[in-house]
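Record Permease, 361 aa.
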Amino acid sequence: MKKLDIYITKNFLKYFFYSLFSFLAIFVLSQIFKVLRYVNEGQLSAGKVPLFIGNLLPGIIINVAPLAVLLGGLISINIMASNLEIISLKTSGIRFARLVRGPILVSFFISLVVFYLNDRVYPGSVVRNRELRGKEDVEERELPKEKENAFFRNEEGRYVYYMKKINREKGIMDYVEILDMSEDFDKIERIITAKQGKYDFEKKIWIFKEVNLYYPETDRTESRVWIQDEKYRDEPDRFISLSNIVPKQQTIAELKKAIKEGSATGNEIREILSELGKRYSFPFASFVVSFLGLALGSHYVRGMSILNIVISILLGYAYYLVEGAFEALGMNGYLNPFLSGWIPNLLFLAAGLYFMRRAEY
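=>
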């Protein structure tokens, strides 16, 4: 069985790489016209074209890997089926799922490689191409001086700020409301409202003026001219963050940091959540579609070579279409934007397992 696994896996890898390089060539050629337009418009110098195209490769590999796995599985198994190898092996009592174990494991390894490229290589390549075109990187932009209707949640100190406006340079917030929460963050212990908060940059502490304090448990109210509490030491910059980061330029760690900061300051994070979900889910599309490709290639049909290509393209674009649809649902609030990226994988995995079962007979 070990020799059989090696034989089937080698065939799968051969046609996977054939498919991968073919799709790479097609997609690179499709980008040439865009690159030439950048050169003509003066956005890119001719000497930097090879470097620019090189930076496009990680993104292209990530996108075409599922297509290459799908087509590689279809062709390699269909050739064995046309030579009556599949039917002979099944007749001898070897289950189809056992025959394709090697290609499925290789597909999982391919998914891990794509995951690495997607997290570690692709974001940097996007940033470098923006720099080659002279585009400003969002990371280099300054934080705005002021923000209206700001929100900040400090989970360590167990309190939440709301304010009508904050100026981070002057360290002034207007019409402030602070909710002191219980240890489990499920109950309000104290509500502080103040007309103004002033940050002492030397002592690194907030001083609140014209203050009302309310204790919900005892229904008690206090009024003070000013208060300061050692726990309210959050620097003004923490209340404002860049909400216009480009998610594609961030690694998974940076996306998680942006989500944490966005949640703390009340910024919209659906796009970032969606990108994070896609970073985890899309690389495993290669593993998911391998079941479909291997199962559909198990039955020999005359003239299947051309049909293989058509099937792989149709199934590949069907996956992208379903993925795009669920991504849109997540972005518009109908689904959790993180989980919406996994639904296409689950649907296509279910279809792949169904056809794998059919391939046993």
